[in-house]
Structures are given as structure tokens and as C-alpha cells.
Amino acid sequence: MRQSSFNNMGCPIAGALEHFGDWWSLLIMRDALDGFTRFDEFQENLGIAPNILTRRLKSLTDAGLLERRQYSERPARYEYLLTESGRDLGPVIVALYLWGIKHTDLDHHSVVLVDQDSGAEIEPVYVDRRSGRPLREIRAVFAAGRAATDQMRRRHGPETKAALRDRALRSGAAAL
Amino acid sequence: MRQSSFNNMGCPIAGALEHFGDWWSLLIMRDALDGFTRFDEFQENLGIAPNILTRRLKSLTDAGLLERRQYSERPARYEYLLTESGRDLGPVIVALYLWGIKHTDLDHHSVVLVDQDSGAEIEPVYVDRRSGRPLREIRAVFAAGRAATDQMRRRHGPETKAALRDRALRSGAAAL
Questions:
Q1: Where are the domains of chain A?
Q2: Closest Cα in chain B to A79
Q3: pLDDT tens digits, residue range A34-91?
Q4: Spatial distance between the Cα atoms of B4 and B106, rounded to a whole number of angstroms
Q5: ipTM of predicted assembly, 2 dp
Q6: What residues contact B29, with CB distance under 8 A and at least 6 apart?
Q7: CATH topology for B1-88?
Q8: Potential cystine with A176: which of A27, A52, A101, B33 (Cβ 3.0-4.6 Å)?
Q9: What does CATH list as the number for A7-88?
């Protein structure tokens, strides 16, 4: 293995994953985004062992996704509140939710995303902010930006892209 | 721990995570969505040990996210192509990318999402398909659907939501 950490891949996706630790952490963030803040609630919702939960909460706090705050002096009790970067995980949870209701064997109507004010169901779809076009209608590809690492430049360089596109055409599979 | 699997939580997000196995699997899917299909390419991009990569590719294939196909007879060589459910992971990767360029210490311009046809940069934003309103302007919450499990019904019931909302108001933190 060339690296023990995702951090030096130069990739924002790997960098993001680096922050979460494991799936439990993402489920804790799902709970936090749903408004839960307390140890007992996370434990009840997740059915997670207390020592694992303690470790995960500490690592999420260290990573700046949650903020620990005392809400009772006697007995001393703490709650875990979302930071801005924690709140920005919302779209990741939404994207996982959309994949989950489509591709797991859970009933499509088990959990729905609604507008809290009107109660209307929400159907999230990614669009390009400027053109308003849905992402699935755009041939969207990642490209090396001007601050790309060498690895990312190789990965996303025009030669690599062209070769992959040719291969996709030959094999009948569409690229992203 | 009450359950050894995320599958019986009745939650589409947990169900989705169940499918991926671990972070390596998501990074392999990132590569597949970028158009890479071959063992050597995944290994080169990820710097992953061959035995781990073999195991991950097998589990992604078993989970129906990738399809294994022979592309050379002599020597026998296989490529891994996206299935429909694999392709539907695109928004998860996009959401992780957006979080990563905002909240990791990678340069914002390391990797950019572009329209392959025009070269224009794309700024993905989640909107509600029907109203066109950006999700971040809607007070979006998950709610128990009509096919919710008991656990999800408790979690997302009106009493729980009301209690969490009150607490968020008292503590000055906004709910999702």
C-alpha cells in the first residue's frame, strides 16, 4: 500500500472520507442532522456499543463536525451540536438516502424527506446552479483544477480522459 | 450492540452504507464513475494492496454495483463496469466532493467538476424537483413514511420532532 491515509491523494472525495472514520460516524451525523444531540439518543437510535460511540463522538468532535457542550451541571451532561462543517454534510446524507430508497430492499415509503413548514414531500435533484440544468442531463466529469497535485493531473489529464472515453465506447458502457 | 448489520434499522441511509463495505469501496466507485475499469488502474489510483482490492471488487460486484466482464481471452483479463445502481452513486460522490473542496485543506481548485462538452465548471446544488427551490432554503426534515418500521416511526414521529425542535431553539442551534 502506498499510503496509509487518504489525505495525500489530493482528492477532495478521499479527503472528505478521511474525516468520517467509518460508517458509524456517518450514521451519527445523520442523527445529528435530524436534531438528536445526546449520547443516550445516539445509542438508542444506532444500537451501538457505548465504547464505540464514545470513540466516534470524540473523533467527530476532533474533526470539527460536532461541538461538545455541557447542558447540565449536576449531573454533568454534554450534548453534541452540529458545526457548520457538520451541517454541510446534509447533501451527503440526502444523496445516500436517495440511493437507499431506490436500491435497497427497504420500502420506498419507509422514510420520506418533507418540507417541515408545508409537509410536502421533497424530491431532491442536483442541478447546475448557473444553468439550472439537472446534473444527469449534463456529461459531468471531474477535471484537474489549476491547483491539482501531479497524481490528480495524471488521473484527470486529457490523455487519460480520452483513453477512458474510447474504451467506454468500445465496450458499450457509458462513462460518468 | 443490538444489531450486527445496518440492514434492519429500516433506514435507507444505513441501508445504503451497508452496501459499500468501507471507504475503499466508495473510492473504487469514484474511480469507476470516472471511467476507470481495470484492476491495475484502481490499484495505481488508490495505492491499495492487491488482496484488499480483490476483496473489495468482489464485494462491489456481489452487491450489484459493478459488473465483471472478460475483455481479453489470452491472457484472461476482466474489467469492472458500472451497473445502473453503481451509476446512481454519482450524486453521493458529488456530495462528498463538494464537502471536500469546502472543508478539507485541499486547495479549492485541485479538482473541478466540468461539463465535458463545453468545459464550463459545474456548481451542483440540490433543489426540489417540483418547486425548484434550493434545499438549503427549505426546512427539510426526514419523516416516517407510510411503510416505516416501528423504529423509524418512533424516530421520526411528531413528538420526537417537536421535542428536538424545542431543544434546538433553547440551545440556539438550528435543526436540519
A1: 7-88, 125-176
A2: B171
A3: 999 999 999 999 989 999 999 999 999 999 999 999 998 999 899 999 999 999 999 9
A4: 35
A5: 0.90
A6: B20, B60, B65, B66, B86, B89, B93
A7: Arc Repressor Mutant, subunit A (1.10.10)
A8: B33
A9: 1.10.10.10
- Residue B81 has what pLDDT? 95
> For residues A87 and A34, what is the distance between their CA atoms, to the nearest angstrom?
10
Could you tell me the maximum CA-CA distance found in chain B, to the nearest angstrom? Answer: 69
Decide if A135 contacts A126 (C-beta within 8 A). yes
- pLDDT value for B5: 67
User: Cβ contacts (< 8 Å) between A141 and chain B: which residues?
Assistant: 34, 113-114, 116
What cell does A126 get?
442536483
Higher local confidence (pLDDT), B163 or A132: A132
Q: With beta carbons under 8 A apart, name residues in chain B contacting A155.
A: 34, 45
CA distance B163 to chain A (A): 9
Q: Which residues of B touch A11 (CB under 8 A)?
A: 30, 100, 106, 110-111
Q: How many CA atoms lie within 13 A of A89 on its CB side?
A: 26
Question: Mean of the per-residue pLDDT values for chain B?
Answer: 87
